Amino acid sequence: MNTWQLDTASPEETRRLGCCLGREIRQPVVLLLVGELGAGKTCLAQGVARGLDVPADEPVVSPSYTLMNVYPGRLEMYHFDLYRLSNPDELHDLGVEEYLPGAGVALVEWGNRFPGLSDDFLQIEISHACGDSRRFTLSARGPVAGALLERFRQAWQTAA
Ligand code: ADP
Ligand code: MG
Questions:
Q1: How far is the CA of 36 from the centre of ligand 1 (A)?
Q2: What distance in Å separates the CA atoms of residue 113 and residue 31, rounded to the nearest whole number?
Q3: Given Cys at both, which of 33, 49, 88, 110 links 54, Cβ 3.0 to 4.6 Å?
Q4: First CA to last CA distance, the chain
C-alpha cells in the first residue's frame, strides 16, 4: 500500500488540503475518512467539495443524521456518515453499493466500521496531534486511488 503522512495546523488548512485533493479528482473514487469524533472528517469533506466545484451556496454539513448527503459538482459528491449504523443490512437499505463506486465521488465517514466496502479506495486517517494540529495518514488501495494519491501529493507539495 502506497502511504503518505502530513499534518495540518488549523481547520482552514484542513479545508485547503481537502480542496487540493478535490481538484485532483477526475473520475469516480471512494474516500474512506477514519478518525474519532471531532478529528476533522467533515472539515476535510468541506474542502473536497470546494475542489469538486460544489457551489459555495451549498453548505456541506455533517450527514450524521441523514446518513448521506448528495452535492452537485464537476462530479457528484456523496457524503456518508456510517457512525450510527450498526449492521450491514442497514448499509444495504441505504443503497451504498450503488455509490462505491458510483457515478461520482463517495466520501465515507466511519467507513472503516464496515470492512470491504470497496476494493479501490483512498483511506484518510485523521488523528489529533498537538493543539489544533491534525495528523493525516493517507493510504491508497487499487489503481484509481493510487494514481489520485500520487497526483494529490505532488499538487500539495508544489503548492506548499
Ligand atoms: P468529524 O467529522 O471528524 O467528527 P469535524 O470536522 O466535524 O470532525 O470537526 C472537527 C473540529 O475540530 C472542528 O470543530 C474544527 O474547527 C476543529 N479543528 C481544530 N483544528 C483542526 C484541524 N487542524 N483540522 C480540522 N479540524 C480542526
Ligand atoms: Mg463528521
A1: 10
A2: 14
A3: 49
A4: 25
Nearest of 18, 23, 57, 36 to residue 138 by alpha carbon: 18
Mean pLDDT by 10 residues, the chain (160 residues): 92 98 98 96 98 96 91 97 90 87 94 90 95 96 97 93
pLDDT of residue 1: 64
Query: What pLDDT was estimated at residue 77?
Result: 97
DSSP string for 108-154? EETGGGSTTS-SSEEEEEEEE-STT-EEEEEEEESHHHHHHHHHHHH
Ligand 1 atom nearest to CA at 45: 6
Among the bound ligands, name the one nearest to the CA of residue 36. Answer: 1
* CB-ligand 1 contact for 35 (6 Å cutoff): yes
Nearest ligand, CA 124: 1
Amino acid identity, residue 57?
D
